Each structure stands twice: as structure tokens, then as C-alpha cells.
Amino acid sequence: MDGNISGGEGDNFDWGTEDEQEIDNFSFSPSCYTLLGRAGSAEASGTKVVDHFVGMGFPEEIVAEAIKENGEENTDLILETLLRYSASSSASSSNSKLIDHFVGMGFSEDLVAKAIQENGEGNTDSILETLLTYSALETLPAEQPHVEEQPQIGEQTHIGEQPHFDSDQFSSEYEGSFLDDFSDMDSCSESEDVTNAVSGEDNRLLFLARMGYTAEDALIAIERCGPDSTVAELTDFICAAQMSKAADLLLGDEDKPRPQPKRKCFHYDILKRKKQLRLEKKLPNDHEELIRLPNPMIGYGVPNESPPFVHRTLPDAAKGPPYFFYENVALAPKGVWDTISRFLYEVEPEFVDSRYFCAAARKRGYIHNLPIQNRFPLLPTPPLTIQEAFPLTRKWWPSWDMRTKLNCLQTCIGSAKLTERIRKALKDSDDDHPPSLAVQKYVLEECRKWNLVWVGRNKVATLEADEVEMLLGFPKNHTRGISRTDRYKSLGNSFQVDTVAYQLSVLKDMFPRGINLLSLFSGIGGAEVALHRLGIPLKNVVAVEISEVNRNIVRGWWEQTNQRGNLIHIADVQEVDGDRLEQLMNSFGGFDLVVGGSPCNNLAGSNRHHRDGLEGRESSLFYDYCRILDLVNCITKRT
């Protein structure tokens, strides 16, 4: 969505690159052993071999023992031995931490050990259920054991005091683990699993897997909690989401009276209080989500694809003019699109992936009252594959990298250290000696995650800001003149111009003499650029944008393209009230189009820690969009 920047002062984005964070919880990193490949050579000295593996995080004594067992020539066998030692050590550590965790919840160590022995340390759900049962039997009177009284919420194993995550309020186009609902990655492949974009270098993934969590849950927990999160934080996140899921299953039974035992287990009291908290937070209109994401995501049709059969009827209240056009991320939390549709006159959203318009994916939803017939794309047609967009990469592109599309262009990029690690991992590879499958997997995951392209033999690089501008349909140097960080930030939160222009193209015949535009949260002017490229004159543009950097970008573009109309900038959306709108509309005859897209900070993207849906600080600006649109409609009808 265009202009999803609410100013640099208060943004809650995580600008640090994840691959640079140090992991204190573990003795080694799988990214290191994945990269080993052919690092060893026959002539490597024993000291160098020891230093190499010690540098990867293995203890020197263990390295020496592994070399003694396998010889210093075969580094692959040494690595396998070290991994075996480490796995054994981690398993023991996992068991110890699991015991400590349940002991910390108030269970006796003997009871915990017995429960783990019965259920295995991987099944934490059954462990907690068993512990609760034991506790109930010990504390309740013999004549009223009421074992069935204990709520079956095995998923509450690692609740602690972490914030409550309501997993049922999230949605995703992917099927599988309920934690998929928390994923922020926007994949360019419809069939590609969301976890493909998450790096496998974090050793916490292996540790969580040994604790019994699925790989999908562990990957998404790492993605949501951030690169520097501890194992305790990750397990708390996963189990908080599991607890929320389990609590929802119990909501339907709230009206049924339950026989109460004479005495209650302390842990049952805890679970009951958490369940009551969940009930208090329950939305009044909690229902099954009505709006589902389509696959493929082609909306009412895209160029070069067979159009779907669509019969669209707009509610009377939604019919224009004035026309409105609102964009938001497609993979929003559960219920968000139902809410957006309800506030925008019950108009159903149109979901479109920009992969059909350019060489990068960008899954977005649009609610608008524009006609859907006689659309046309911008010309010339932009490059639709990576190789078309960057032809110089063909020479260096390895045969095992099958990507033709980039993933969603983000607000930050990979680091120089990451690309250097990839280069070292591939340094002994060539056409005749491709890297091992493990190295290929590691490299491809990082390339997908950070949109890396091949610029030399075994050399990858991040996209430059100029290249991102081109992929998003902006003119060259559109954002030039501001800091590199701000360029990526502004571009990552903008419209994909070709996609938006295709939907706005129906306005060209309707407004041949020009259009009056109200652009809310206009960012770097994606809507303005789209209308200009369509050949629709911009008579009067009122752009509401809090970021001075973005306002300067739009002002510069306005002057560079010799616009003849009027550009009025308003910094604070709260200044746009009924009186201000009436003054503006009386001065030039009203607005023909109201465009907007509230910042996605609380819906997806880089901000993993404050994904609060439409109630988040930035995304709640959606309600300002609705307020202003209603005012525009009222003033239009009155005049």
C-alpha cells in the first residue's frame, strides 16, 4: 500500500538484519555447518582444522576427540561426529530445561520426571495433562476425584508471563499449522511453503524440534519473535498461541454448568483465570471469517490470464462518484478483511498479486467502487521475470536456482556479511562441481528471503534502491536524494504502480479533462504516479502524509513532471475534518477519487512484535480513511 510510512520518529519497525544477531543459547550454528561444504582440504594442518571447527562454536576438546576418531583429512566425517555429539548434548540439555520449566510451574521434580518418562519429552501437551491429572488426584478428596474436571489444555505448557497471542484472530492463505497464521512472509510462488523464506541457520530451530515442536511452528516463532529471541521466549510464543487455540475450543461450553470439586488444584486455578481472561477479550461479533483469499490471486482479472467469471453488484451506498480505492496487505490477521469490508459499505475486496504485473510478488487486497470492465495495463509492459528485469544476471545464474520471480520487496535488505558468507560457502563450486544439496538449500533460502540476485561467479547481491524503484513501477531516481535506509523503507511500503494503474485505468475515459484526487497516507505518491502514467491529468491533489521525507519526494516528482494542477500537502490526518474538507471541495468542486492505504505495520511485513491488526497504532488509521470518506460523501450529496 502506498505511503504506509507514518513518519520516521515513531515507527516500530525492526530495521536490524536478522542474520547478524548472535545466538547465545547454543554452542553452534547450523549455518556454519551448512556452509562447510568443501572447506577442508587434504593439506590443511591439524591446527587449522581445529581452529575452523572451534570458530564454528564447537568446544576444542570435542573437536580434538572428533579429529582423533576420524583423522584430520575428512572434514565431512568430523562434522558429522561433532553434530552427533552436539545432538546428544542438546537432547540432554532439552530434557533438563523441560524438567526445570515444569518444576518452575510448581510441579515436583519427581512428578515431572515420571510424566516425561510416560509421555516422552517431545510431547509437552501430554506431559502437562499428565501432571495436572496427578496433581488433581493428589489434592482432591478421594470420594470426589473429578479427574474430568481438569481442562484439557495441554497446549499451555510454556505460558509464563508472556503477552497473550490470539491465534484465532489471524488468517492465512496457507493450510497447515495454526501458527502459519502468524507468518508475515509474502511468497511469490502460490505453491511454495511459507517456511521456505525463513533461514535455516538458527540453531534454535533444531533445539525446538528436539523439544517436540513442528518445524513450521518453530520457524514462524523465530520469524515473529525476532532474531535475538531466546528459546524461552520462542516456546512461550508457541505455547501462548496453542493455549489461545485450545481456549477457543472451550468457549462453546461456557454456558454448561460444571460440577465443582470441593478443592481445586492450584494449576487448575491458573488455567481457569487465563480462560476467563480469554473470555473477557473475546470480540462481541466473533464468527467464522467470511472472506477467504483466492488462489491464484488474480482479482477480477489480470493481463495475459483467463479472466474469471465475475458478476459484481455494488450496494447503493457504495456507488460512485465519488470513487474510492483502498489497499491493504492480503495476508492480514483473521477478521481484518471482514472489518474493512463492513466499514467500506460491504464491498468485497479484490485480491491481486503483483507477480502478474512485474517480476516481484506483492499480495494485496483492494476495496473499491470502480468499474471492473475495460481495464488496460500500462505500456510498455514491465519485465515479468528476474532475468528480464536484470539481464546481466543470466551469465551468473546457477542452474539449481530455479527462481523466476522475486518475493515481496521489503523495507530492509540483507547485509554484506550475509552475501560474504554465501560467497565463502560456494567458493569451491563451479558448473562441473555444483555445491552440495545442503549448501544449495541454505543459499536458496537466503536468496528468497532477502531477494538476492547473482552478480558474479558464486556471488550474490541485494537489490539497489534504483532497481526496487523499477520493479515497483516508479520513475528512475524517484526516491533519490534521501538516505539509503529511508529509500528502502519508503519503497517497501508503497503501491506497485503497474498493479494499481490497471485497476485505475477505467478512469481515463471517465475523466478526460483531469481528476481531483484526495490521497490519504499518500507516501511517495504511488497513486499519483499511476494516474499520471495512465495519461489522466491531475487537476487538484490533496495529499495527506505525515512523513516530511515522503512529502518532499512527491513534491520533487510533481515539479520534475511539470504538473499543471495544484498539489496541497497536509501533514496530520486529524486536521482533515468536515470544515477543512468543505473548504477544499468548495474551492475546486469536490473530489472524484479518494485513495488510501493505511500503514501495514500492525498487519504484516517487518514489524513482528506489534502485529495488532486494525487496532494497532498505524493500521488504525484505516478508521480515519473511513471517517474522511464518509465526510466526502456527505458533503458531495449536500452540494
Ordered list of secondary-structure elements with their pairings:
Elements: H1 30-35, H2 46-55, H3 60-70, H4 75-104, H5 109-119, H6 124-139, H7 203-210, H8 215-225, H9 231-250, H10 266-281, E1 323-329, H11 336-343, E2 350-353, E3 363-368, H12 386-389, H13 416-425, H14 437-450, E4 453-456, E5 459-461, H15 465-472, H16 484-492, H17 497-504, H18 507-510, E6 515-520, H19 526-533, E7 538-544, H20 548-560, E8 566-570, H21 578-588, E9 593-596, H22 621-638
Parallel strand pairs: 1-9, 6-7, 6-9, 7-8
Antiparallel strand pairs: 1-3, 2-3, 4-5
Helix pairs in contact: 2-3, 3-4, 4-5, 5-6, 7-8, 8-9, 15-16, 17-19, 21-22
Task: Give descriptors for this structure.
639 residues; alpha/beta; seven-stranded mixed beta sheet; 9 strands; 40% helix; 7% strand; globular
Describe this structure as you would to a colleague:
This protein is α/β, with parallel strands linked by helices and 639 residues long. The chain has a domain of 134 residues. Helices cover 40% and strands 7% of the residues. The strands form two sheets. It has a seven-stranded mixed β-sheet, sandwiched between helices. A two-stranded antiparallel sheet has the order 4-5. Helix 2 packs across helix 3 and helix 15 packs parallel to helix 16. The chain is globular and about 85 Å long. The N terminus is likely disordered. This is DNA (cytosine-5-)-methyltransferase. It is an enzyme of class 2 (transferase). InterPro entries: C5-Methyltransferase, C5_MeTfrase, SAM-dependent_MTases_sf, SAM_MeTfrase_DRM, UBA. Keywords: DNA-binding, Methyltransferase, Nucleus, Repeat, S-adenosyl-L-methionine, Transferase. One of its GO terms (biological process) is methylation.
